[in-house]
Amino acid sequence: MELWDIFDRVRQPQNRTAVRGSIISKTDFHLIIHAWVRRKSDNKLLVSKRVPEIFWGGYWQPTGGSVKAGEAGKDAALRELREELGIKADDAQSTLLFSYRFVPPEPENPSFFLDCWLFEFDDVSQKLEIIPVLQKEEVADARWCTFQEIIDLWKNGSFMPFETTWQPYFQVLQKCLQKPGSIFSLRAWGAAELQTTKTTTPELDSSLLLSHVLGCSRDELLVRASDKVSAEDALNYAKLLYRRADGMPVAYLTGRKDFWKSSFEVSPAVLIPKPDTELLVELAAKLVEARAHALSARPQSTQPETLNIADICTGSGCIGISVFQEALDLHINPVDMKFVLSDISKGALDIAQKNARSILGENAQNISFVQGDLLEPFLAGAETPQHFDIILSNPPYVPSAVTDELLLDGRNEPRLALDGGSDGLDIIRRLIPQVWQALNKNGILLIETGEYNAAQTAELLKDSGFIEIATFNDLGGQPRVTQAKKP
Fold first, then answer.
1. What is the rounded distance in angstroms from the CA atom of residue 47 to the CA atom of residue 447?
2. What is the pLDDT of residues 112-157, one digit of tens each?
């Protein structure tokens, strides 16, 4: 399969309104091709001059044209070279330097995509000839130029006026020509492709995906910028990149997400850990430290006690596992703690167990995993009723209408972990009475609710008899975590 076929046939007019992956029957795609030819012996590029009577008439420019229906971008570039200049470049080394979408300021004009290809010949012994005869009604002349000579033509107004389409064209072209097929050019191309998507971090996303494919850190991408990328790795990168363009989160594409002090495995079975949730871990770690030290300070004659902690709606396990890891870092003996992580989703629990084993090692045996609806497996009447000193939870709390909007971008996060009903409080209303039953005297609840309903959650806790209720803001100044105590 041609390397770039995976998306060449899905960039349609009207800003990609067609379903990605489909092939639409049209006479001409709105995908423009620029085909540059470089002679390695002297590093010169081939440009042609159009006759005055046609589009961009009278200007020097790279060979170019539109992709036809059912035709891959590279095929179109080869066809244009053959038809316009009589050059057969099928066996030449080829590289897709970069690609971008141009959206004109005039609303009546359609946007279009442009692919910039480079074909390289080792030397003139390959009998590269310029024969502008097959379309001499369009091509008036052709010549070899250094890159600086092309820039001079552009500055003098004799080259195709790229500033009317994309002003940084030459800047990006020059960078890519310096390192064709390199980590640098592939990363730059990826960031350009994501510029017009919903992501607010195209450069970061491009780097994260490329470092994942190459098995290196983002810092190594900079150090190895001039390294060539294999066709297989480039293909794998392109596949991930266009899934990202369709809205799939980077964490699901790489299968990993950094949270607190560890890297967690994630999948569409779990919510992706968010930086704002680290506030809950921070508060819980301080609470565990204080409670653990209070227990250890008791007289030796007193029956030893264990600190019982539950993480409800655990998902990837990022909260409970991070709090446990923090307790270990604070030199709290793991045998003095009993952690329970629960979730209604078996798929989520499977991910949480994997994370516990990979992050905690042998200490993971001190964590129990229970499948069930909220705290029901631990209440009176259950097989193994339990009481806890601390309950942590990040339940679904996003209002349904907001959840619908969030999922429109193709992020594929589980609705089960997001949707909290019409006002976002459906799960919380059920959880609070269960917390009251499951907490020991003076037990503490730490619950993430967020800006949607933190105030209402505090009222529900107050009405249920909880005291010392406080809501803490995240780094963005939004109410994020509510703490309450059972008297």
1. 64
2. 677 888 998 875 444 455 544 445 677 888 888 999 999 999 889 8
